[in-house]
TrEMBL record:
One Pfam family, short name: GST_C_3
Family matches, as PANTHER family: GLUTATHIONE S TRANSFERASE D10, ISOFORM A-RELATED
Gene3D superfamilies the record matches: 1.20.1050.10, Glutaredoxin
Name assigned to this protein: Glutathione S-transferase family protein
Amino acid sequence: MATLHYHPFCPHSRFVRLILAELSLEPDMVEEKPWERRMPLLEINPAGNLPLLVDNSGLAVPGSSVIAEYLDETHGESLGDRRFLPRDVEQRVEVRRLLDWFHVKFHAEVSDYLATEKIYKRFTPAELGGGPPDMGAIRAARTNVRYHLKYIGYLIATRNWLAGQHLTYADLAAAAHLSIVDYLGDVPWDEDETAKHWYARIKSRPSFRALLADRVLGMPPWEHYDNLDF
């Protein structure tokens, strides 16, 4: 049985969970607290980053991008036209470009700020960086998410999904990051109906159910978080 080391409110972990659910794969789940840097995790993955997938053979596959490529290589062919990393070279470039946009740019400007300040710091010991949230960082993230939402709306205005006509890793990555911001109530959905409609479509997929069931102890989600018709 494969094992996924993850944190429920790590956006990169959520991305991989969506892929696994779309592929109908059900690994054993090991929840990690990133700030603890447990030695058993570091022995498998010295970088200590999440997520980490250990496959049935014991192969350790670290990081969301590496896991996504691994899952495409091992399961992509069986999906045919529904492959999340398309066969066409230009389409693959576009998917990877958008993966970089959300995993690097969106993460640095929005989801990392909000997850760290509003969630992680609540549970992290003071000596490891825990404490009250930095409101300046939160305000910056709330400002930044607006132009990312507009960019999603711009893409969807001319495409069926973010990277083209079919659901790809780009959609799963964007939704994974936005889902955390949405849990916290910091997505101004009323500013872009096109982006909101796209998110409602992907949020309604069966693969999203486990994410919608996640809860932060002592912090319920925003009222529309698990409402499919929001």
